[in-house]
């Protein structure tokens, strides 16, 4: 990558980070203006168009990055599991750490999942599908079960995780700890039920 390309990528990154910084419990992406993002990034508004066609394109980039960040964390969790540890406990701990450290990234995914923009809804749906597919791969391999069955189990688990994540956003540390225990139990029940059902099918 040449110097000019590196500078362009650095400026693009600056705009993305500036938009993420402006998100909060009180401010959604739809309330941000191009000028606000450019000002936060320390750039002239005209510079914005060298990197993004419009605010929607920037927003879709944020959704993609948010989903990718979460998937990368869960991959790291699986590595920790490979080194020894409880699958569900480590996964729940990793997810709750993500909520605590990057609440506005998760808020973005939740808000745009049911927002007014069809493009944003589709982008979030794709990220959830990616998340579900990676979990399906893991369950299919570990449980030696059919793809469709592993996918059904993964979908149930992802539904619980995202629902708990939405609750966790407005909780304090103690409340999140209680929620994490509840989520761990719920996921274990699904896993135990899946295992029992899978064994029964083989009889």
Automatic annotation (TrEMBL):
PROSITE patterns: HTH_TETR_1, HTH_TETR_2. The keyword Cell membrane does not apply. One of its GO terms (molecular function) is DNA binding. The keyword Ribonucleoprotein does not apply. Keywords: DNA-binding, Transcription, Transcription regulation. Residues 33-52 bind DNA. It holds the Pfam family TetR_C_46. Residues 10-70 form the HTH tetR-type domain. InterPro entries: DesT_TetR_C (IPR054129), DNA-bd_HTH_TetR-type_CS (IPR023772), Homeodomain-like_sf (IPR009057), HTH_TetR (IPR001647), HTH_transcr_repressor_FabR (IPR050692). PANTHER family: HTH-TYPE TRANSCRIPTIONAL REPRESSOR FABR (PTHR47752). This is DNA-binding transcriptional regulator FabR. The lineage of its organism: Bacteria, Pseudomonadati, Pseudomonadota, Gammaproteobacteria, Aeromonadales.
